[in-house]
Amino acid sequence: MLALPSSYPILAAALTLAVAGACLVAYNISATREQLRSRVELLDAGRRAANRPIPRPRPADDLGLLNTAGLHGDELEFARWLHRFRIRAMFAARLFLALRLVLSVLLTIVFVLLVYYYLEVRAMPTLVGVGFIGFVIGWWLPHNAVGRAAANRRRAISRGLPDAVELLVIAVEAGLSLEDAMNRIVVELQPSQPAVSEELAITSADLKILPNRDDALRRLAERADMPSVNSIVTTLSQTLKYGTPLAQALRVAAAELRNDALLRIEEQANRMPVLLTVPMIVLILPSLFLVIGGPAFLIVLDVFWNFNR
What we know:
- By secondary structure, the chain is mainly alpha-helical.
- Among the domains are: 59-154, no CATH class; 156-264.
- Helix content is 83%, strand content 0%.
- It has helices at residues 7-51, 59-65, 74-83, 92-118, 124-173, 178-189, 194-209, 213-224, 227-242, 246-308.
- The longest helix is centred in the C-terminal third of the chain and has 63 residues, at 246-308.
- The two termini are 55 Å apart.
- The model is unreliable at 1-5 and 54-65 (pLDDT under 50).
C-alpha cells in the first residue's frame, strides 16, 4: 500500500487553518459593516425625530382612566391592568372583589364536581373540605397574580429610575422647568422604560392640574411605594420649597441611585458563592467521592469476597 509523504498532514492542517482564518476575517468585516450600518440608521432616525414636533402626553386620558386616588396595593395594580382595556380606575376595587368572589365560587364548584363524579366521593365532610380548599385557592390566586405583577413593576421602576433622573438633570440644565422636563423625558423613556414613563406622565399631568406640586409628588410616591422614589420625591419637594438649584439636587439624587444599584449588584455577586454551594454538594461532591473512594471500596469488597471464599 502506497504511504503518503509525511508533509501532507502538515499541508492539510495549514490549509484548514488558512481557510478558518479567512472565514474569521470575513465574518469580522461583515459584523463591522453591520454595526456601522445600524449606527447610521440610528443617526438618521434621530435626525428625523429631531425635526418632528415633540409629542405630548395626554393628561386628560391618563387622569380619567388612572385616577388612582384612594387605591392601594392589589387594587392599584389591578387598576393599571384595567387601564389597558380603557376601564376607569374608580371601578378597580369593586371589580377586583367581584373577580375574587367569582373565581372562588367557580373553583369551589369545579373541585366538588371533580371529586364527586371522578373520584366517586360521596361523604359530605369530604366534599365540604374540598370545596373550602377550592374557595381558598380561588380567593388567593388573584392576589398572588397581582402581587407578582406589582413586584415586577417595582423592579422595572427601580431599574429605570436612575436613567429618568439623569435625563431630568439634562433637561433642567437645558433650561426647562420641572413640568416641561418631565414631558420631554416621558417620550424618550417610553421605548426602554415604559413603567417609569407611565408614572412620570401621570405625575406631569398632576403637576399641571393639582394646585400644589407637593400633592402631585406625594401621589407619585404613593403609587410607586418604593424607598428610592420616596427619596427622589423628598428631594424635589425640598428643592421646590426652599429654592435650591434643581439640577444640582437631581444630580446628587442620580449619583445616590447609581450607588444603590451598584451596591445591589455587589450584594447579588456576594451571594453567588453561597448559592453555588448547594449545586456543588449535590452534583460535584458525589462524583468526586465516587472517583476517590470507588477504587478503595472495590478493593475492600474484593478482599472480603476472597476472605469468605
